[in-house]
Every structure is written in C-alpha cells, then in structure tokens.
Amino acid sequence: MKKLAIIGFVFLLVGCGTNNSSNIGSEQVETVGVGEVCGGLGKMKCQPGLECLFDVNSADLSGVCRKTVTDPDLECSKDKKPVCGLKERQKNGYLNECEAERHGAEIVYERFCEIDENVKGNCAAKVRSIGNCEALFTGYEFDGQSCQQVKVTGCEGELPFGSMMGCKEACE
C-alpha cells in the first residue's frame, strides 16, 4: 500500500505523460517579421530585434516592422554608461555610446532620455518623441520660415508648441 501511495504521489507531481501546460498567466502573442504590418487595429507586434515604424498618417496608426540594429557587425561591450540617442524624431535610451551607434542613433546626451522642459515655447526646438510606443502626439515647430504641424509616435512627446496659433505668435 505504501508503494502504491508513493507511485500515486509521483504521478500527481509528474503527470501521466500528457502536457497540460496551458500557459496560465502568460499570453500567446503573434508576431510579424521585417516589412510586415504592425500596430494598428490588429495590434500586431514585431518579432524580437525589430521595431514598429508607425505611420503617423495612417487611419489606425499601423506601421511596418524594421530592424532596430543598423550596424550588426559593430560589437559593443556591456558597460553600463547610459546615453540618450536620437533616431529620426525619436529619443531612446541605450546602454552605452556603442549601442546607440549600433542602432543608428545620434547621441543627444549622457544618461537615459527624459523630457526636455526647455522645448516648450522654443522656436528653435523640434517635435520629438521618447520611446517606441503607439501613442500619437501632434505638435508644432518653426522651420525658420513658418510654423509646421508635426506628428510623432512614442511613449511621451516633446512639443515646442501645442497649437499653430501659439507657434505663429511666438516665432513668425
């Protein structure tokens, strides 16, 4: 009887050869590859190593997956000297200067990215976002001759002006 109880206990712990792992507590996420549609109404996520380049003019804020690394041959150390890098109109934090360069980002300053409060009301400042999120931000900037509406996606937005009128009053 003792042996039967032990065998029963082992079957209880190990199971009977069937896989009952139903990913409780985790969610199956379908991902897409380079050049495929991401974001938008389908909320498709890019595969690891890719980022969604959102189309700010699309009706559903969909985009296209692209590689995050622009120089895969560049080998970087794992030194933790964070920098804020700018890639197109988006600021992102990188582990160190080499990682920023590897991702094709221009270094803005040493430390992780944060909102620059000096942007507000500044005619020389550009509309930028921080982080790669699906939030859409619309701001206005002065291009040296006139005020322009600019849309960006990110987790936060740096907007010199919140309205065309505010931009024109300050800069034109």
Structure, described:
There is one protein chain. The chain has about 170 residues and is α+β, with helices and mostly antiparallel strands. It folds into three domains: about 30-70, no CATH class; about 70-115, Wheat Germ Agglutinin (Isolectin 2), domain 1, CATH 3.30.60; about 115-170, Pancreatic trypsin inhibitor Kunitz domain (Factor Xa Inhibitor), CATH 4.10.410. It is about 15% helix and about 35% strand. It contains three helices and ten strands; from the N terminus they run αβββββββαβββα. The protein has helices at about 1-15, 95-100, 165-170, and strands at about 30, 35-40, 45, 50-55, 60-65, 85, 90-95, 105-110, 130-140, 145-160. A five-stranded mixed sheet has the order 8-6-7-9-10. A three-stranded antiparallel sheet has the order 2-5-4, with no helix packed on it. A hairpin with a 2-residue loop joins strand 6 and strand 7 (about 90-95). The longest helix is centred in the N-terminal third of the chain and has 13 residues, at about 1-15. The chain is globular. The N and C termini lie far apart (about 90 Å).
